[in-house]
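hey so i finally got around to running both of the ones u sent me last week. sorry it took forever, my laptop kept dying halfway thru and i had to restart like 3 times lol. anyway pasting them below in the order u listed, first the sequence line then the structure token line for each. didnt double check formatting much so if smth looks off just lmk and ill redo it

first one:
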Amino acid sequence: MSPPPRAVLLDLGNVLVFHDNGLLFRRLGARAGLPAAEAERRLAGAGWTAANRGLLGAEGIRRTVCEALGADVPAEEFNALWSSHFTVHEEVLPRVEGLVGRVKLVLLSNTNVLHVAYLRPRLPLLERFDHLVLSCEVGHVKPEPSIYQEALKHAGCEPHEAAFFDDIPEFVQAANALGIRGHLFTTAASFDAQLEAMGL
């Protein structure tokens, strides 16, 4: 049996917070006078990766999305809409809190500056993480090896000494390919069982 991991790397979306993209498209579509499906179609290539890489700041995101939707939404209203699909995953937070001080705790997330600004004050637990590796700050995105290596650097451990949890199988597979112990995150209960199986 392997020893317990020295570091736990956690995804943000659908792990610490839920994001309902369908709700986001409905709300943005309604604001632009479009059906949700049309809003989703128009936004399919609207700078998501550029925003996640930090190539678009807050105003760049607003402009890109508004242009795609054919609507001019003022910044304050847009920022609220853009993050209106998040809810905190309250059930998982105590288990993550229990890892503080026992392992290196690193967030590893594909995200953009507006979502970070919205979620930080709503997730005070993030302040207790050892490091936050945010794609919009480091310029790399999952599943690129470089962003996992960035997380390992801040965790101060070898790949096999780290466990990684994400809700997207492709990102878990990319971690496994680097020798990290990747696990698919599904529910708070299964996360608890996975940690216990690793000796945490």
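and the second one:
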Amino acid sequence: MGKRKKSSRKPQGPKKREPLPTVFTCLFCNHENAVTVKLDKKAGVGTLDCRVCGQKFQCGINYLSAAVDVYSEWVDAADAVAQENEEARPTLSGGRIQASAPRRPPNRQLVENEEDDRRYEGEGIVADDEDYD
């Protein structure tokens, strides 16, 4: 089997590239085609805003940036804020809420004991840091 003759092939033109989108889905209100991105390359600023819920975002761009880049920066920034808020929340572990610091029972006075461990008046609950490891 041989190759086809070059004379039977027709010349192909350049491939047509689809333009990158400039309208996206909003992360907060989930409306499609609600977020528009505008690039000001002279000022080096990309602006994004949702016409439904009013969310706005602005970031720095360079001469290679496109609207997709501004949208992805917005997604990354929203994920980072959600991650920070999740780390600050107490988590459930074994049916108990684990907070960053142990909390005292309400309406109890902290009394120093002779053995240098702290006990609360009333029920004698030990609030020594060594017990919480």
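quick thing i noticed on the 2nd:
The longest helix spans residues 67-88.
anyway thats it, ttyl
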